[in-house]
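Figure S4 source data
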Amino acid sequence: MTTLSLRRNPLRLLLSPGLWSGAWYLIAYQVVGWVLFAAALTAALTGLSLGLTLAGLPLLVVAAGILRWCADVERARLRPFCGEVRAGYRPADGSGLVARFSARWRDPAAWRDVAYLIGLFAPLALLDLVVLTIWAVLLAGITLPVWYWAPWQSVHGVRYHGYALGYFPNGPHGHPGYGWYISTLPEALLAAVIFLAAFLAFNYVLVATVRAHVTVARSLLGTPGDPLRAAKEVLSSPGPLNTSHHAELRDALARSVGRAS
C-alpha cells in the first residue's frame, strides 16, 4: 500500500513512491474523472428524464448500474492508497424490477456515489489541476539550464534569446519590463536552484492534496464507519464492565448504545 506521509524531509519525500504515485493519481483524474463524470451525468439525466413512468423503470435500473460501475472504477484507483474500499450497497429485497429499482435508488450509498462522481467533480478537478500546474512548472524550471537559450523574441529586427520570467514586451532591455530575463548560463543555474527549492517545498502541497482527495473519495465511496464502534468493543471485551460488580453500569451503557444505534 502506498503511504502518503508528510513526515519526511524534502529529499526523502522526493524519492518516496507516495509522491510520484500521488502525482499520477491526480494526473489520471484529469482524464478518468472527466470520463466518469460524463458517463455518470448522462446516465443520471437520461434515467431521470425517461424513467418517470413505470415503463421507464428499466432505464433507471440501468442508470444506477452505470453509476455503480463508475464508482467501482474510482474505488479501484483508491486501492493503492487505502486498500480495498467496500461500497456497502444494500441488497435487493426481491428479484423483480421494482425491487431492484428500490434497492438501487433508495440506497444512501448510491447517492454518495452521485455526490462524488457528479457533485464534487468540478471542485476536485479544479483543485487538482491548479496544484498539478504549479508542480509541473516548478519541475520544468529545474531543467532551465538545458533550454533557457531556446526561446527568443524579435524587437525592431533584433533577436533576443532567453527565458522571460515576467513581462518583457520590448526585449530584455526595453521599457516596460517586469521580472527576470534569463539570458546567460549563470542566471539559468541560479534560477534552477530557486526552482528546485520551491519544488521540494511544493511537494508537501501536492501530497496534502492527494491525501485530501483520497479522504473525500474514500468517505463517500466507502462504507461509513460506526461512530459507536469503540463503545461496542468495550461492552463486548473482557474487563471491569463484564464483572457482576459493574453489571448495572454495563446494562445502562448497553441501553444507551442501543438507543443511539
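Figure S5 source data
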Amino acid sequence: MSERGQHEITAASPLLDADGALVQTGWARQPLLDNNLENARTTRLRSLQRFRVKRWDYYGVTSPDGFFSVTLADLGYAGQAFVYAVDFTNGTYHEESLTIPLARGLTLARNSDGGESGFSNKHVQVRFRATDDERHVTVHWDDFGGAALDVGIRFAVPPDHESTVVVIPIEGNRFYYNRKINAMPVEGTIRIGDTTTEVNPTATLGNLDWGRGVWAYNSFWVWASASGFLGNGRAAGLNLGYGFGDTSAATENTLLLDGRIHKLGIVAFNYSDMDFMRPWTMHSDRADLVFTPFLERVAATNLAVIRSEVHQMFGRYEGTVVNDDGDPVHIDGIIGWAEQHHARW
C-alpha cells in the first residue's frame, strides 16, 4: 500500500545545487543526500548567510518512568546546549540551558550518519558520536538543579534500521532537511547527584531529531512522536507533524515497526491551543489515533532576535495505523509526546 503524492528518494545526491536550489525533494528511508549547506543562497549578502542557517541534533530517551533529552543547536546568531529530564511518576521536569554567543566552540557533524558533534566549557561538556551502527551520547553538567548531571548512553542503529527523512522546500529558496530515527534500543546510565538510573534496552527506546535548513523568520510547527513497545513486544515508533514548508512531495508522517518505515500521507490534527491537556486526535485514511496527555512541559526562549515557545505534552497514544501491507497495527498506550512550537529565528 503506497500513498499517492509521496515521492520516495532512492538515489544519492548533494542536497543543494550550485545555485542553492534543492536537487531532490521528497522522503527517504535513509539519509541519501550530502548536506552541503555551504551552497545555501537565501540572502543577498553571502556574509549574512550563516545567520539564516539552522542546525540541531536532539536526542531523547523514553522509558515507562520518564524522559531525558539533550540538544546541541546552532541557530546562526547563537548556539544552544540544553538538557531536560521528565519524571512521569511525580509529574515534574527540570531543564538547564546554555546560550553560546555566535555558537563559538560548538561543532555539529555535516551529515547524520557519522561524525562528531560537541561543545565544552568549564562547567558543561556535551558530545555526540555516530558510527555505522551506534550513536554515543555523553553529557556532564555541573549544576542540574543543584546536582551534577552525568550521562553515558549508547543507541543501537543497525544499518537496516530505517528512519524518517524529509527534504522539503520553503518559500524564497528556503528548505528543510530532517532525519528522525525512532525506537532505537538504548543502554547506559543517567546520573543526577547520588541517583543513578540504569537504562535498559528491554524497557527503554531512544530517538533522534536531526534538522538542517533555512526557515522563514516566523515559523510554526506541530510535532508528535513516540517510541515504545506494543502489547506483543514489537518495537514501534510514530512520527507525525505539520506546519511550515511545502509538503506536496512528502509529509513526515510515518509508522516504524520492527525497524521498517511505513509511509503515511497527510494526517489531520485536532487539539486545543487553549487547553493543551485535552486529548488530541490524529486522523487520516490509514491512521486513527488519540493522544491523551498527562504532563505539560512549557519552554520559552527570548534572546532578542531569537524567540520561541513550545508546549510539549507527554501522554499515551491509542488507536490504529494501517501498515504498508494493509494490516492494522494496534497502538495500545505507547508513551510519547505532541508539541506546538512557535519560533522567530
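The radius of gyration is 19 Å. The chain is about 0% helix and 60% strand.
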